[in-house]
């Protein structure tokens, strides 16, 4: 009696191929970040010298600090504006201009970045001519530009969550005497908190990764990390870029593992609470 061979499923093969396609280039990049050679495609031995060179590069460190500040401020402001827009789109009844407002809020999602960057550049130039501000394009203009298109992503994420909430929960809180503002902070906000966090993280990532729009609205001396990396790659890939990318991959991986651990722990606590509540 012969044993049947295990069948290889097509979906399993495609899954493995997809994972290899995504992660093998990253693995190669990590390996070559420890290359002793100045040529990124020629392996000449193990070395960590490029990590030291990276931390001694003032231009890259300054760009990282500027990108992190802009991404944090842009994501925070985008959450505020996007949440307000989401409430208008989902909680307000029919009013004149609602369709146009919804279209304008979501327009940056499908608008080419070149068009968005050019339009914002023309806006800042006209404002400087009329009001004298901004005199120089820099961190402030990049922050405004990133907030503009990040707010659209936050609005879509929060609006999707708001549509899933049963309005009767908020109505019951107000029937019991809770003012609208207290109802929002004590009832609505905890329910949409995961969407706010997801929108903030999405906006932070988009701002940190943006190159096209920042190139239009930035000025001399205001260089974000993608702009510095792009300019250095155009002159030839430096092993320092491999080291920088490796550190970014490590940071993202650790953050993802931490988020997974916290979610798993909270889910375990919730399951224990449910088991304790069942008689």
UniProtKB/TrEMBL annotation:
Keyword Cell membrane: yes
Cell compartment(s), UniProt: Cell membrane
UniProt superkingdom: Bacteria
Segments forming a coiled coil: none
Domain ABC transmembrane type-1, first and last residues per copy: 64-259
Main location: membrane
Keywords on record: Cell membrane, Membrane, Transmembrane, Transmembrane helix, Transport
Pfam families on file: BPD_transp_1
Bilayer disposition of the protein: Multi-pass membrane protein
SUPFAM superfamilies: MetI-like
Parts of the chain that traverse the membrane: 12-34, 63-88, 109-128, 140-162, 183-203, 241-262
Keyword Cytoplasm applies: no
Family label: Belongs to the binding-protein-dependent transport system permease family. CysTW subfamily.
Listed name of the protein: ABC transporter permease subunit
Species name: Vreelandella gomseomensis
